[in-house]
Amino acid sequence: MDLEQRPSWSKGDLRRLGEALVIDRAATPDDCPSYGEVMLWHNELATEAAIRIATELWAATPPNQLSITARAKTVDTLVQKLQRQTTLKLGQVQDLAGVRVDADMVLTHQTELAEHIAEHFGAARSRIKDMRETPHSGYRAVHVWLALPAGRVEVQIRTLAQSEWANAYEDFAELLGRGIRYGERHENADVRLVVDKMHRVSEIIALREKVIDAAWEAERAIEELAAEAALDPMDSLVNENGLNTAQVVGLGRAQLAELSETLLKVRSQIELFVQILRELRRDLQEEEEV
């Protein structure tokens, strides 16, 4: 698909289609495309955006391979969204085309990857929405919202732990009611307890990811200093404590070495949460099949 090509329908056509779908999800007003046509277009749009992301050599690409998927919004989830947000028009729905990018990466890589994606598609056509400090019902990620001539695309960028949490919570929502994804208070006290515990798990994961990220940033800064010291054979730069660059590098490396055991425990805790969430998903999916 050519991302610069506009679809054959107008904004007015989409508005009328959306209004009709809220009343009857099988409806297609006269002179409007069917939602099947709209969905097919946005599926191709999402696929093309995903291909662009997968084939670009991002400077911020983490060492582990990216997991990239694409999809168009189904009519059921679309209608639910339009019914929840009564002022939202079909043409304004950002995630009609969705791309998901998951990877085992630190938070800094996640931020840099979002910035590179936004830059690639054009700063004027991109907006980054960081949902890590202000999560939505426990959901944490960095989204890049694209407004292209071919349509709107939402690119969701998530760490491995963020992804596993989101997938498990989605499965809970399918089983217990999708309202929990949007902050709706469930009438059942046991369900509310499960939701609260899942939100707490999201908070714990976020705190541990911050620790790992801070250590990674410190290690990068130390190695940059080491590179600078290598370019200055006389090592003439001295800080306020009377230490030259090489001494600062040595001190920094020693401090990181002392923290290595703690960092290993934090990483192990995150890996444990990921494993628990995966097992939880399997149990929930088996429950749905029953």
Automatic annotation (TrEMBL):
It holds the Pfam family RelA_SpoT. One of its GO terms (biological process) is guanosine tetraphosphate metabolic process. This is Uncharacterized protein. It comes from Mycolicibacterium duvalii.
